[in-house]
Amino acid sequence: EFKSINKKYVIRRIMDYMENHYQEKISLDQIAANMYLSSYYISKLFKEEMGDSPINYLISIRLKKAASLLKDSNLTITEISSLTGYENTYYFSRLFKKKYGVMPSQYRRLPS
Description:
By secondary structure, the protein is mainly alpha-helical. It is built from 7 helices and no strands. Helix 1 (about 1-20) crosses helix 3 (about 40-50), helix 1 runs parallel beside helix 4 (about 55-70) and helix 2 (about 30-35) crosses helix 3. The longest helix is centred in the first third of the chain and has 20 residues, at about 1-20.
């Protein structure tokens, strides 16, 4: 019983951290060090509990935020890319297209 509560606590902390710091450089090693756990253990635990890897979860947070900025702001794609944790706009655009099926500029023009 204690172990499952503990696991859920670890996962919640990781998710909270990502949601509050998605615009920064985040590494699994850094999260693991902050929690005094190994990155391998955190990755395994996260995948078991969430059904996906921590990096995919982080990408998902970032792209959701980007999608909302595309619709609700006049920021450039480069600015949005940077604000959501991506230094490389081309890489950001590829990830965005993979998730949403359209480039960020096309997404912005879609009816809401």
